[in-house]
Amino acid sequence: MAGEVFVGVDGSSEAGHALAWAAREADARGARLHVVVVAVGGDQTQSWSDDILDRAQLTINAVAPDVEVTVERMDGPAARVLAEAAASSSMLVVGRRGIGGFAGLLLGSVAHGVAQLAECPVVAVPAPEVPVADSVVVGVDGSEGNEAAIGFAFALADLHGARLRAVHTWTQPVPFGPADALPLVYDVEAVQADESRVLAESLAGWQDEHPDVQVESRTVRGHPVRTLDAQASDALAVVVGRRATRNRVIGLLGSVSHGLLHHARCPVAVVPPPA
């Protein structure tokens, strides 16, 4: 599979977890691991960067001693610098929160920024990682923009010999209008059948391309963020797509990807639509 796995580090504990996840992923792919520390000014001197990169090498030696590693210091706004530098990489991995920001925030500005800006898949890793992960979860919505996320999830599951749990959620529409309006006639079984068909059609071609991947298809009536988080509690990653926009410079995180980045207990992969 090869390619390059790009990871941003800043000395925080969550960046350390992201680095370990990225190192194992690069090792599994036979890819180079490119480690970057971004200095944004102030007291972030060359010695500060060198110390972070030295500690990063110790982490890599512990989890993936044979992986090829390159390191680099960059300067500027971290999210934009990382997104631009990783544009042609297989993926960009960051911690869900870094050393900056306010205590209590679940999602850091860098993770949020790169998930919006990057042209490659972005994986945001929380701390701690799931100790034993034997599945990949992907959210399926039936849109064309979702295809890239499904493909990434199949490839990830195939690489790790993991089960793929494909989840499609739906909710019952809420009637509105005059209080004396006729009640909404709603055939739940018919809607469930239609939504199951959307899921099956979305997966069909990918299953042919990855015949060794065991797929669990689940159509669930419920809130998409809560449902995907529950389904992915023991997953290697939960994969979602980023909305397609006319402006490729600034992407758009939908409510599902945004919610999972904040709350998921496993790594979240946000996959941009094709250029």
From TrEMBL:
Q: Which lineage do the record's taxonomy fields give for this organism?
A: Bacteria, Bacillati, Actinomycetota, Actinomycetes, Jiangellales
**Family matches, as InterPro entries:** Rossmann-like_a/b/a_fold, Universal_stress_UspA, UspA
Q: Write down the superkingdom of origin.
A: Bacteria
Q: Which organism is it from?
A: Haloactinopolyspora alba
What positions does the domain UspA occupy?
4-126, 135-272
What's this protein's name?
A: Nucleotide-binding universal stress UspA family protein
Family, per the entry? Belongs to the universal stress protein A family.
